[in-house]
Design goal:
This protein is mainly alpha-helical and 276 residues long. It is 72% helix and 1% strand. β1 and β2 form a beta hairpin. α3 packs antiparallel against α4. It is globular. The structure holds geranylgeranyl diphosphate. Geranylgeranyl diphosphate binds next to α4, α8, α9 and α10.
Length: 276
């Protein structure tokens, strides 16, 4: 990730703003999922890293835009001021645009080393998951729902698109590029669906119970923005129980892959117990 700006002819100040958004921490869960899924089937992990970085760039773009005053209006992210607070709103908009386009470029760059048809298929999964059918669509529904009461089904649809789609596509893309067969890809798709919901549920719990010094962002934001959340609809206790059932379902989806999927199974527990 650190090489992305350095290796390109990007105006200096824009490059600094891109690096600020991309390199300031973050758990790197999506590229990790991509690399784990890939390495279940192929050991050329180092050569595929640009694709993983592309996914993280797209994720980082979504956070920069999400933090803008016209969206969730956040001053802190990853324990630091948000990109627009440091570089201004117009520049933050451009940083997001840059990270999205760089992400697509990086994913495509591995076609020099891996079968272009597989790269195209994996890239299409990630781009589709990031677009209006996935993350952008989820963000749209999320903004439209502010101040409204939602049913659990409506809430789940938002999060399946906004948070789940990219997580799932990282796993499916990794499995496709690694050469996994259709049964294995399906298992990872199901795991991704469960993990995505688990991830969002724990995000909602962290907003209520998390320590801002550890999460690196303001807490109780959902209440301020009158957002529908799992704890708001179900209460904290039932939300925790729901999280556990998604964690188990995620792990179960990987049973056919045997012990080599243990890291991904453990990751589901990490997401359940996460404090940031
Ligand atoms: C602006 C098109 C557009 C989409 C924004 C990702 C997103 C959609 C909004 C972020 C709001 C949010 C808190 C979503 C919940 C789940 C989530 C994506 C949390 C942030 O991801 P982490 O925890 O972040 O993986 P790090 O900092 O670790 O990379």
């Amino acid at each position: 990730l650190g090489k992305i700006v350095k290796e390109r002819d990007i105006p200096k100040e824009l490059g600094e703003a891109i690096e600020y958004a991309l390199l300031g921490g973050g758990k790197r869960i999506r590229p990790f999922l991509f690399l784990q899924a890939f390495s279940l089937f192929c050991d050329r992990e180092k050569e595929i890293i640009p694709f993983a970085c592309g996914i993280e760039a797209i994720h980082s773009y979504s956070l920069v835009h999400d933090d803008l005053p016209v969206m969730d209006d956040d001053d802190y992210r990853r324990g630091r001021l948000t990109t627009h607070k440091v570089f201004g709103e117009a520049n933050a908009l451009l940083v997001g645009d840059a990270l999205l386009t760089l992400g697509c470029e990086l994913m495509g760059s591995v076609a020099r080393k891996f079968p272009p048809a597989l790269v195209g298929e994996a890239q299409q999964k990630v781009i589709k998951a990031s677009g209006p059918e996935g993350m952008v669509g989820g963000q749209y529904l999320d903004l439209a729902a502010e101040g409204k009461e939602l049913t659990l089904e409506e809430l789940e649809e938002i999060h399946r698109r906004k948070t789940g789609a990219l997580i799932q596509a990282a796993l499916v893309g990794g499995a496709i590029l690694g050469g996994g067969d259709s049964v294995a890809v399906k298992s990872l798709e199901l795991y991704g669906q469960e993990l995505g919901l688990l991830f969002q549920i724990t995000d909602d719990l962290l907003d209520v119970e998390g320590d801002p010094l550890i999460t690196g962002k303001s807490s109780q934001k959902d209440e301020v923005l009158e957002k529908a959340t799992y704890p708001r609809i179900l209460g904290v206790k039932a939300t925790r129980e729901k999280a556990i059932s998604h964690c188990y379902a995620a792990q179960k989806a990987l049973n056919d892959l045997g012990d080599r999927a243990n890291i991904l199974k453990n990751l589901a527990e990490y997401v359940y117990y996460r404090d940031r």
